[in-house]
């Protein structure tokens, strides 16, 4: 089962301890084969909408800064419970804030 875990922006600035703990966590998940991809996201982006034959592009940002997704991790695990435990561990490392986790369907 694959899950996309997304993190929203936080008011807390990262410190050296966070970088060290996150590096250990990422290394552990990579060694276990659970981490497929991870990265940060630009705050703006482009919204693409379609209506009939019309396709419209609009430059972002679109949400309040605290609502924007700023990072992601794509993981592959055996169960939803395992994904939830990894999300809990991530939140313990990064501290206060909000993440969203959704199962990814398809091959």
TrEMBL record:
- Give all residue intervals belonging to the YCII-related domain: 1-90
InterPro entries for this protein: Dimeric_a/b-barrel, YCII
Pfam families (alphabetical): YCII
Q: Which domain of life is it from?
A: Bacteria
Q: Which family does it belong to?
A: Belongs to the YciI family.
* Record protein name field: YCII-related domain-containing protein
- Protein species of origin: Streptosporangium lutulentum
């Amino acid at each position: 089962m694959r899950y996309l875990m997304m993190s929203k922006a936080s008011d807390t600035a990262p410190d050296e301890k966070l970088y060290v703990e996150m590096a250990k966590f990422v290394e552990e998940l990579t060694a276990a084969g659970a981490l497929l991809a991870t990265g940060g996201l630009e705050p703006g982006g482009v919204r693409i909408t379609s209506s009939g034959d019309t396709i419209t592009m609009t430059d972002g940002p679109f949400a309040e800064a605290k609502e924007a997704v700023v990072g992601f991790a794509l993981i592959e695990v055996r169960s939803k419970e395992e994904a939830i435990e990894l999300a809990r561990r991530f939140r313990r490392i990064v501290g206060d804030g909000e993440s969203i986790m959704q199962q990814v369907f398809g091959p």
